[in-house]
Records
---
Amino acid sequence: MSRTQANIRQACYSDHAAIRDFVGGLSLRARYLRFFTGAVATSPAVLRILAGGGDHIDAIVAVENGTIIGHAMASDATGPGGTVTEIGVVVTDACQGRGIGAALVRALTARAQGRGITAFTMEVLAENRQVLAMIADHWPTAQRDLSGAYATIQVPLPQPAGGQVPLAAKEQPPPQREEASLDRLAIRY
């Protein structure tokens, strides 16, 4: 498949309907691999979270010809080892294999580094061999904890030399804040 130049930008409130359509347009298999369920609720509260509303949530979308073709989000948490972010990424079935998922991960990583995040984590279904292979290729030193049906992956993020924030991270506005609980299904890979 050919590579694509999709526009990657921060998700926002006005994306709710487009995100609902995007999630609804994913195949049952793609929804299952991303959300660990085939039936994803797209209630107003879930759409706010997927659009980046909520404490410590960063959401971005890949858009091609005015249509969302990819979605990625990160949820930050501070713990004893520093601040980490849990990420989740999904690309519409027709656009998979074109580098969009990797571009979304790179964008999330740059934004996370700009916020001072020291590592990211993701939960991946053990049967999702394509994503596990991609992780092994890109982050051979990633820590994996296989626990039943899924693997929890932790990847340390290199910090910019001299504390300089990458330009791409500085240019992005901070995620919107909203009082909403984070549905764990909304951040799985």
---
Amino acid sequence: MTPANTEVYLPSEDTATLARVLRSYRGGRVLEIGFGSGAVLRSLVPRFELVVGRDVISVAQAVAAKGDADAVLADRATCFREAVFDVVAFNPPYLPSERIEDRAVDGGRGGLDVPLAFLEDALRVLKPEGRVVLLLSDEADLDEFKKSCGRRKLRVEEKVREGLFFENLFVFEVSREDRD
């Protein structure tokens, strides 16, 4: 397991945007990959039977952030069985960077190394008919993100586009093409 982060991403416009989109989702089991401050995680509790957050923060930070949700301290989602979640959500680090120096914001090449790694984990633990809901910025290579999803035979639906003075935020719903 990777050492725990001491820095937790503080809720910002992107956090609020993802939480707002997720208000329309409900069901059995939901996982948030990288729950950080817990703002999105706690907002899911009233609408799902089981709410689980996964992150690499300290135990004290996790206890403070999780509210009534369950928290798992792990790097990636390898600790979960396959096909158990109805929804997997995440607001990954997405800023383009040559190296991952700040795990809260650095997304790697094109801002996609981390988001695509999160997506791989999400797809493994997602039920066949499930949905992945994620937030990216136009700072990331969105065309390459969509092409990567296409190569995996995934549908990508833009749920929200929100313009800020310094970037545009996008919330996407990703699902398997063969789910119907």
